[in-house]
């Protein structure tokens, strides 16, 4: 089986679990060097790092830097450059959420969400682009959200950050269009992850609902298909965007949301 990304290096933020780890696994399967980033149990992260190397036949590096701090982002990008020369594929996936009415929204939570979900993508992009330009090839992918295109109440910081990612992506696409570098968003709806699954029992209790009612009437209320997006479906879109077939897809926002934003 051919390794379509052999010789390329992919850096994925927020990739020790969930969607980010799915990206890392699929790109490793195609032979890419991988830089993963995020928090978690050190032993579990090391197992995943070793598994990525086995899958890719290349190298995998773990960088645990805090993406809310520009100096640490610079250190992470320097580590990647020292190990691999630079980053060919950048996937900005790190993020967090907080839900509260605007008048009660903690200022520190706003600052943290904007910093992690949006500002970190600016810093990783500005640092990755010079190498991509030198190679005349690059892929920048943002994990946005259906909330990059629509809004929900009580999620002011998250919705703002995700809309901002969409604007940053369009700007990058225009600036880099003649350098063989594309920039795109992937905007999933509700994705089936352990984080989502673990919310179900508490919601069942709080709302006096069955598991099926919580899934269909709460979590999937906005998705006409009534099906969760899977991490593998999101990762498959990223792999396609890295391919030569997607060389003229740039500045796009690729929705995988079961029809949510079509309404």
TrEMBL record:
Residues 8-180 form the Ketoreductase domain. It comes from the Bacteria. The keyword Oxidoreductase applies. It catalyses: 2,5-dichlorocyclohexa-2,5-dien-1,4-diol + NAD(+) = 2,5-dichlorohydroquinone + NADH + H(+). GO terms for biological process: monocarboxylic acid metabolic process. Keywords: Oxidoreductase. Belongs to the short-chain dehydrogenases/reductases (SDR) family. GO terms for molecular function: 3-hydroxybutyrate dehydrogenase activity. This is 3-hydroxybutyrate dehydrogenase. Gene3D superfamilies: NAD(P)-binding Rossmann-like Domain. Its EC number is 1.1.1.30.
């Amino acid at each position: 089986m051919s390794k379509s990304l052999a010789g390329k290096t992919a850096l994925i933020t927020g990739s020790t679990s969930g969607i980010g780890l799915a990206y890392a696994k699929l790109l490793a399967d195609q032979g890419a060097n991988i830089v993963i980033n995020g928090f978690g149990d050190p032993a579990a992260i090391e197992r995943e790092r070793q598994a990525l190397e086995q899958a890719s036949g290349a190298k995998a590096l773990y960088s645990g830097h805090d993406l809310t701090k520009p100096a640490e982002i610079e250190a992470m990008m320097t580590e990647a450059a020292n190990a691999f020369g630079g980053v060919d594929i950048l996937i900005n996936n790190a993020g967090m959420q907080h839900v509260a009415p605007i008048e009660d929204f903690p200022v520190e939570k706003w600052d943290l969400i904007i910093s992690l979900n949006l500002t970190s993508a600016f810093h990783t992009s500005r640092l990755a682009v010079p190498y991509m330009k030198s190679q005349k090839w690059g892929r920048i992918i943002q994990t946005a959200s259906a909330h990059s295109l629509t809004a929900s109440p009580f999620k002011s910081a998250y919705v703002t950050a995700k809309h901002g990612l969409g604007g940053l992506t369009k700007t990058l696409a225009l600036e880099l269009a003649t350098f063989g570098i594309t920039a795109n968003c992937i905007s999933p709806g509700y994705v089936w992850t352990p984080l989502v699954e673990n919310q179900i029992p508490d919601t069942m209790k709080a709302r006096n609902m069955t598991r099926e009612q919580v899934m269909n009437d709460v979590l999937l209320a906005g998705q006409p298909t009534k099906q969760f997006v899977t991490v593998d479906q999101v990762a498959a879109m990223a792999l396609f965007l890295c391919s030569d077939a997607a060389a003229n897809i740039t500045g796009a926002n690729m929705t995988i949301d079961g029809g949510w934003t079509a309404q």
